[in-house]
What we know:
This protein has 10 helices and 18 strands. By secondary structure, the protein is an alpha/beta fold. It binds beta-L-fucopyranose.
Amino acid sequence: MLNKTIGLLIALTVSTILTAQSPSGPLPSPRQLAWADKEFYLFTHFGPNTFTDLEWGKGTENEEIFNPTELDCRQWCRIAKAAGAKGIIITAKHHDGFCLWPSKYSNHTVAQSKWRNGKGDVLRELALACKEYGLEVGIYLSPWDRNHPKYGTSEYNEVFINMMKEVVARYGPLFEFWWDGANGEGPNGKKQIYDWHRFQQTMRTIAPNTPIFSDIGPDIRWVGNENGIAGETNWNLLDTAGFSRGEGAPPTDTLNAGNVNGHLWLPAECDVSIRPGWFYHESEDTLVKTPEKLFDLYLKSVGRGANLLLNVPPDRRGLFTSFDSAALMGFRRRREESFRSSLIHQRGTTVTVDGEKNIGNLSDGNGHTFITLGKGRDINVAFAQPTLLNCVLLQEPIQMGQRVKGFRIEIKKEDGTVFETSATTIGHKRIITFPAQSARSIRIVVTDSKSVPLIGDLGVYLIKI
Length: 465
Ligand code: FUL
């Protein structure tokens, strides 16, 4: 009898899971799925500009100017790790064409500099340090090259491909590859016609698991601004037909919000610098973003379903400054204090989904395990006593597709009145903040959805804003 009951229960569970589990619409590839969970990682702009105080080098800089006195990638990693970042993407070659590794395909590299007597290799040091600290490495390689003599001819495409092969083979596996869309003049005044098709084919062959960023992917899209802010409505979907990288990219508001019915899974990444510029400038030491500002950017990037790529540039010593590391530590503290424990886990709290008490793994901190919202399309959280809160965190299990188009949060206050707020998309993670309320209960209602709404995780917090 017991066996029969267990058998029936298993059959029921399996059938519920099966009916609930059909993915819908464009879906992320395994490469994109793994990337989405990284949420926050660092960018680092380093090169001749660090020494000339420029943002865009001309490509005519003497290699000898690249001479950091105390370069230590382990220091970068120590700080990145302590900040809670998952990896570091480095400008292996910016628009000035200088290579931070001794490339066989250029004469404008660390090998021609005086640094470590021409025997240094920043990428190698970074890759080793990342490994030691449990971080991942990513590479930014600017197709635009103001130095390379072949730039502006079809042979340059070969050079770029060879450089990609070189860095992947020597410093991989890479967690992200970054193609900058900027395309200006080369040393001979010529513009380059990039062979994007071959660039992409090459990467897929040599690094099939590495997601590629550019204005329009193929794996990760630009968010349309360099302020670190994703759209309040942010679809992981985009139509790219008819668009190209750089000047031919989709309008920035489209990149910011995605397309609700887009045919490609193309999530947004928010790139932003901790300072006004991308490269180090001493004059900006006093302009480093505060922990409060960084936390606000986190809410507007990761909290809107995008990833946050935060640039921290090393100085002329080749170190992150104490201004930047202090801001990063404050940022880390704010995130930890805010999201340490969800108020849902408070004693005596009752949670129901569509009126049912079985809420499965709705609040297990894992966005990939999920519950299905049936007819009621609502989740209700009732507290044993009035609870002060100002933040709701929701996740969709994106491996099933992005579905929710709109939802409402209703808070029944201690005085019996109701506070309401609403929002549109959820995606990988959505963090909604509002003025603090003393709540008896909260109800979350999905008001519009492309298909059956699935919720991966729900958290309720009182955060510092
Ligand atoms: C832009 C570049 O022109 C900037 O210098 C910087 O590297 C930024 C991340 O991308 O397109």
